[in-house]
Amino acid sequence: MVFGRGKSKDGDIARNTYSWPNEYKGENIMYRLPTNIYYNDNIVVMEDEYAVFLRDGKAMHVFDQAGRYALTTQNVPILRTILPALTGVKQLGEVYYIQRRELRGKFGTPEPLTFRDTDFGLVRLRVFGQFSYKVVEPLLFITQFVGTRGWSGSEEVIEWLRSELIQSVNDVLGELKKDKNLALVDMPAYLNEIEQLVLGKIDSEAKRYGLDITNLAGITITAPQEVQEAIDRRGAMGALGVNYMQYQTGKAIEGIGEGAAQGGGGTTAAMAGLGAGVGVGYGVGGAMGQGMQQGTTGPQEIMIKCQECGALTAQDAKFCKECGKPMVKAGTMKCPKCGMAIPADAKFCKECGAPTKAKCPKCGKEQAGAKFCNECGEKL
């Protein structure tokens, strides 16, 4: 961009004056002047910019103060060695501008990341977020990206940053899975920790290229639609206190009712879905009967959780239907000998007759179902 002629500090007539046009700035991290620089040309450097002079692919000098500079031996001392005898107009090299201010960008996974979850197995996750960065070492930045990699625009640098961020996110998820057994449903509670761990990884890598990753925020981790639907089903089953078969039966019966209300067209499809879900023969009849019984207005069977495995079991059951352990209800305790549930104030087990309280052989205090004395710690 030619802005006119002027006197250089050496007193020679300046040829052309160049600067970074405002319309090309925006969120671009760097800009290469579209023409080569000649001896005694002027460049203008603003407060929010660096200007780096290159010759033959090597960064020679950094203009890190705002002002107008003529490319002469006075402003660029290295020219004294490469222009010992200047005659006429001599082509020198290139000038790259670099933004000093903090810039922002977005990143996301071009392909889903594979995560091995305890509950759902292999899950494909997509990750999105925002980051802030700035150039802190302009000479190192130009050397690595322009001199070494041959890049000349901002797009290549931003794409490199995004790929490094995705790789860091993948590493952090793997480490949290290994160290803390991170599950898919636990990820929302770990987002801040994930952001900090990723920031630590990417910032140390970026500093090798003259960059500083100043902030990382807004990380969003999304699972496939079918996994989200499975999580919703599990939440509904927990809220209703039913197992998977009961939940599916209730949904099938809802479909039958809707089909009948619409004229019977959906009944056959609902019945077919019900049969596929619960099996042939007895599976259909038994599940239908169970579903209809749950849909009646009569008294519902009260279910309680097993203290051993957490499965829902009928209130009057003596043993858990899942793990087979004796059920312990409110106001009851386990017999220290046979494990049967007995009233909490019983002195003897009604099943085996064993005493429920034993005296400590050391201090004489009565203990109920303990392995060590609560008073003196003596083994019982």
List the helices and strands and how they pair.
Layout: E1 17-18, E2 30-32, E3 37-38, E4 42-45, E5 49-55, E6 58-63, E7 67-70, H1 79-82, E8 91-99, E9 103-108, E10 113-117, E11 121-135, H2 138-148, H3 154-180, H4 191-206, E12 211-222, H5 225-240, H6 244-261, H7 267-278, H8 282-295, E13 303-305, E14 312-314, E15 332-334, E16 341-343, E17 357-359, E18 366-368
Parallel strand pairs: 1-4
Antiparallel strand pairs: 2-8, 3-8, 4-7, 5-6, 5-8, 9-11, 10-11, 11-12, 13-14, 15-16, 17-18
Helix pairs in contact: 3-4, 6-7, 6-8
Brief characterization of the structure:
This protein has 380 residues and is of the alpha+beta class.
Q: What labels describe this entry?
A:
single chain; 380 residues; alpha+beta; five-stranded antiparallel sheet; four-stranded antiparallel sheet; 8 helices; 18 strands; 31% helix; elongated
Helical element count? Answer: 8
Shape: elongated
- Low-confidence residue ranges: 1-13, 80-89, 266-289, 291-298
- Largest pleated sheet: 5 strands, antiparallel
**Global Rg:** 37 Å
Task: Please state the structural category.
Answer: alpha+beta
Q: What is the count of β-strands?
A: 18
Kindly estimate the percentage of residues that lie in beta strands according to DSSP: 15-25%
Helix content: 25-40%
Describe it.
- With 380 residues, the protein is of the alpha+beta class.
- Helices cover 31% and strands 24% of the residues.
- The protein is built from 8 helices and 18 strands.
- The strands form 6 sheets. Strands 2, 3, 5, 6 and 8 form a 5-stranded antiparallel β-sheet that branches. Strands 9, 10, 11 and 12 form a 4-stranded antiparallel β-sheet that branches. Strands 1-4-7 form a 3-stranded mixed β-sheet, with no helix packed on it.
- Helix 3 (154-180) packs across helix 4 (191-206).
- Residues 1-13, 80-89, 266-289 and 291-298 have low confidence and may be disordered.
